[in-house]
Write a structure and sequence with these properties.
Layout lengths: L11 H11 L11 H12 L2 H11 L19 H10 L11 H5 L2
Length: 105
């Protein structure tokens, strides 16, 4: 029997990430260290296209991503978004990655 595939709304993953971050608002913020708070503040300052790139990258199996696979219809100019995120320090060069980051070993 064929399985029916559920169509997800564009940027559903960003909505879920916002829900995750909402857990740390208010009383739960005390659970975070300053580095985590700074990450959330930096993330919230980004436009939605850049947020989508970051969340998509975070959902990957490995820390190293192939930027050529980041061409999603719901993200405007994804390659330019990645370039801007590199300039802002969100992504780095593969030469700084560990073997674990590259292959999970």
């Amino acid at each position: 029997m064929p399985r029916m595939r559920k169509d997800l709304p564009p940027r559903y993953y960003l909505t879920h990430f916002y829900e995750f971050l909402a857990f740390f608002e208010g009383a739960n913020k005390v659970l975070l260290n300053q580095e985590a708070i700074a990450f959330i503040d930096r993330f919230n300052a980004l436009d939605e296209d850049k947020k989508c790139i970051i969340v998509r990258a975070a959902n990957r199996k490995y820390a190293v991503i192939d930027r050529n696979q980041f061409n999603y219809a719901e993200i405007d100019a994804p390659q330019q978004q990645i370039d801007a995120l590199i300039e802002q320090g969100w992504f780095g060069d593969i030469t700084h990655a560990s073997l674990h980051d590259i292959a999970g070993v």
